[in-house]
Amino acid sequence: MSKSINVALIGNPNTGKTSVFNQLTGLSQKVGNYPGITVEKKEGICKLSRGVKAHILDLPGTYSLNTTSLDESVVVELLLNKKDKDFPDVAVVVSDVENLKRNLLVFTQIKDLKIPSILVINMSDRMEKKGISLNISLLEELLNTKVALISSRKGTGIDGLKQLIADYKTISAEPNLDTTVIAPEYFEKLRKTFPKEDLYKLWIVITQDVNFMPIEKKAVKDTSSFTTKSKAELKRLQQKETILRYQFINKVLKETYLIDRNAAKGWRASIDRILTHRVFGYLIFLFILVTIFQAIYDWSSYPMDFIDAQFAAASEWIKTTLPPGVFTNLLAEGILAGIGGIVIFIPQIAFLFLFIALLEESGYMSRVVFLMDRIMRPFGLSGKSIVPLISGTACAIPAVMATRNIENWKERLITILVTPFITCSARLPVYLIIIALVIPEGRFFGLSYQALTLTLLYLIGFGAAIFSAMILNKILKIRSRSFFVVEMPSYKMPLFKNVFYTVVEKTKSFVYGAGKIILSISIVLWFLGSNGYSSEFNNAEEIVTQKIETIGFDEYNQEQIQRELNSYRSRVMPEASSASDSEMALAMRDSIQIKKLSLENKARNQEIASYKLENSYIGTIGKAIEPMVLPLGYDWKIGIAVLTSFAAREVFVGTLATIYSVGNDEEETETIKERMASEINPKTKKSLFNLASGISLLLFYAFAMQCMSTLAIVKRETNSWRWPIAQLIFMSVFAYIVALIAFQVLK
Amino acid sequence: MRITVAHLKRGERGIIKRFAEDILPIKLLELGCLPGNEVEMVQIAPLKDPLYINVSGSHIAIRRATALQIELDIIDPKAIL
Fold it and tell me: What percent of chain A has pLDDT over 70?
């Protein structure tokens, strides 16, 4: 451990910093969060020569040390805190050869903090094409550093970089510039007040929150005690500093960086002309969107079916192999069902992240932001809101996290608040089963009613998001200046390695993050559903057995037994009739008798389970809330399913399956549907799931905020309980009212 | 008339003259949007907003309101020839 070198990777966004990180660390990387905030922390180990190891920390992309966001302040906080265990022995500043001038800004700042810094010039493979030539040795001399010319795409120069890291002790820690010249008197005063401190470091500390948005301010320690200048003055000084730095950089590059514009070739301009075209640009975007959705739903259905079947089988295996008891039940019905509920979403989430990673890596996403900004603005949204809104169709959790790069706090907040209206993948199983139940199978101009309904539900979700954004834009009185600056990176072929790591990483963090909550909910649900205090619950077996003896099985179960028995008989009878010997016929009759008994046993167990559930804690709760859901056309069972869905929507189908005492295996989905179809509303004597109650349910699920994980993420991202609570109340009340109107009108 | 970045037509270029620094974010400066630097209009979105510019090699998109704060001198293409 003593030989491990702390390395911090710093650089502008779009310089290929992440590819450099991937090249250095390979699969040894791990992703976590900085304590208390949701900024991703990526670190990994790089093996250098002679058994020396480097601990590489990939810091968020930043254009300078003048922090404007939480991501950037992570960089500054680390560089200022010598006591931090991650404080770098050496900073590796990654730059892109085409944008070297701009990339050097942050390099000179880090250098001035007296941290030994290596300059990595990436994308050297593009130099020739762009007509760029460099005088590396002069550049090293003028910047007083070591330069590694690499191509993370081609993998060249990485060994040289590793060598430089290993020899980090030879790298100069001398500053490049003297910043105090921008305001000599001010800095002199600072020097007198804090004689022991480094002046540039002090300056960075003082100016840290000058550009901060209100929400993120609390993460920064109060520096007002030694601020003797107003914010506006400090900001002006920061600008002076930037200009000073660019003067220095221009002077350096004039001698070392040559670009022959005539030799420069590139597709960029022509591709941009098409992709940002006022007509074709939008058509292409629409085409890409449709393709993505098609792919997500079509391709992921195969792995999803497979996962579902595996979990059903595993649950069955546990129940049959382990000794029966509370623990087995918890494992099979609580924990395994819970894990299955998370794992089933992995394919969809992974596909979505794959597409988003491709769009971002290639540089296309910035073009979409450019195209959509003006269109989104009347609704209080930004062009950058389009990324979260698209991600929201998979899951609102990563979508809310993707709002982070929206600079304007009001636009960001509105995006966070409306994203949960977008139809996420968790709503899909609910929609599918209810649509199959209540929407007739006919066709309208060749399109099936059922598919049309599903499409309509997606549109309703999107419409609700846009509509509520408009209202929020009117009522939210937040003054925040419109900072909208989007870099339009050059187009690049996405690197497989980068895309792969992103998908793995994001999927993993989704599974662990959301997984914990879904898992604990399902354990609680299982407990509430399999325990009760009433005598009915405790004596369920006797009561049900007695009931079956006196009045027989439920109508549904009677039919079911009869049907299965008939099919069994027709399967064995041909053999029996051909057998002349009466012993054989007798054996057949016995076998049918045994089959009948086993079927009856199964039915009895189902009825006991159903009766128990009805009298369990959750059943008691369901009966208590029934008056609330009756006006919407639901009974207590649907009420419970709706209630448990407030943890996570996808729980709906599982809960109903348990309530209707049908095993929740893939093969039996049909029977859940049949079972639901045969439910009778005791009051109206009509089918419980009819068009009115079905539409009411669909609309309720379209609008209600039923996802604890999203609420938790919104709390983290907005730093207060106020917004998630407002979201929960508003969306749920709205959903209730809409569902109520729908049922009352349609019934 | 005060000429700003927002007045450039597609393909036109100009040199940044002045900058309403109190209103504009520091990020713009960091990206190279400094007095004396050249700006080229790359693409204009429908409704003339936002604007996609190339300022001394940095390709960025900014809103029209921001662009109106950056004054410049238009480079006459004929003058170059």
Answer: 89
Gyration radius of chain B over CA positions: 12
Q: Rounded to whole angstroms, how far apart are CA atoms A113 and A80?
A: 8
Q: How far is CA A411 from CA A200, A380, B18, B64, in A?
A: 34, 6, 29, 17
The three-state secondary structure class of B19 is: strand
Name the band, by pLDDT with cuts 50, 70 and 90, for residue A666.
Answer: very low
Q: Cβ–Cβ of A373/B32 closer than 8 Å?
A: no
Instruction: Tell me if chain B has a CB within 8 Å of the CB of A240.
Output: no
Domain that includes residue A225, residue range: 5-259
Question: What is the average pLDDT score of chain A?
Answer: 83
Q: For residue A671, what pLDDT band results from cuts at 50, 70 and 90?
A: low
A233 within a domain of the structure (yes/no): yes
Cβ distance A485 to B56 less than 8 Å, yes or no, reads no
Q: What is the pLDDT of residue A575?
A: 59
Length of chain B, in residues: 81
Is A490 at the interface with chain B, CB within 8 A?
yes
The CATH number covering residue A58 comes to: 3.40.50.300
pLDDT in tens, A72-101: 888 998 998 888 888 999 999 999 999 999
H or E element in which residue A481 lies:
none
Interface of B with A in 10-39 (CB under 8 A): 21-23, 25-32, 34
Kindly report, residue by residue over B6-38, the tens digit of the pLDDT.
Answer: 999 999 999 999 877 677 788 888 898 888 899
Cα A671 from Cα B51, distance rounded (Å):
57
In a domain, A560, yes or no: yes
Label residue A563 by pLDDT band (50, 70, 90): confident
> What is the full DSSP assignment across A370-413?
HHHHHHHGGGT--GGGHHHHHHTTT-HHHHHHGGGG--SHHHHH
The amino acid sitting at A493 is M
Give residue A371's pLDDT. Answer: 94
- Is A110 part of any domain? yes
Instruction: Give how far Cα A426 sits from Cα of A64, A276, A331, A725, Å.
Output: 40, 33, 23, 21
The residue type of A249 is I
Smallest CA–CA distance, residue B15 to chain A, in Å, is: 16
Pick the more confident residue, A332 or A247.
Answer: A247
* Distance, CA of A100 to CA of A703 (rounded, Å): 49
Question: Has residue A478 been placed in a domain?
Answer: no
Q: What is the DSSP letter of A448?
A: E
Q: What is the pLDDT of residue A736?
A: 96
CA A320 to CA A328: how far, in whole Å?
10
- Ranked by mean pLDDT, which of A18-22, A293-297, A597-601, A654-658 comes out on top? A18-22
DSSP state letters, A64-97: -SS--SHHHHHHHHHHH-TTSTT--SEEEEEEEG
CATH superfamily of B5-75: Ferrous iron transport protein A (FeoA) (2.30.30.90)
pTM, entire model: 0.79
CA nearest neighbour of A617 among A521, A522, A518, A537: A537
